[in-house]
Amino acid sequence: ICGGDVAERQAMIEQEALVYNEAPFVLNAFPGGEGKTIGSFVTVSDPQIVLTAMYHINGKLVLRLFNSSHEERTAEILIPGLDICQSITLRGSGFQTYIAENKHLTETQPI
Fold it and tell me: Are 30 and 73 in contact (CB under 8 A)?
């Protein structure tokens, strides 16, 4: 259980619930502790905007983002491997689907 300021806790609860309930991506039974750490594939600057889905269709990367607050929010989406750094704005409690191509995120209908 995390404590702290009520407004701060409410802002982080959606993100923390997703992380808590997510299954491990890779599980190594005998980690050696050697090698280099890699960074995140996708970074979202606002913790109230959550990446809820990411998949490939026809060779294109598709991302779905959800605004867990009731207010309009703006966040910067960073995908270093695709050379994408772009600001997006989502209405309160809204979601939007994007296609990542040509170093840009383009809004699209849910796929």
Answer: no
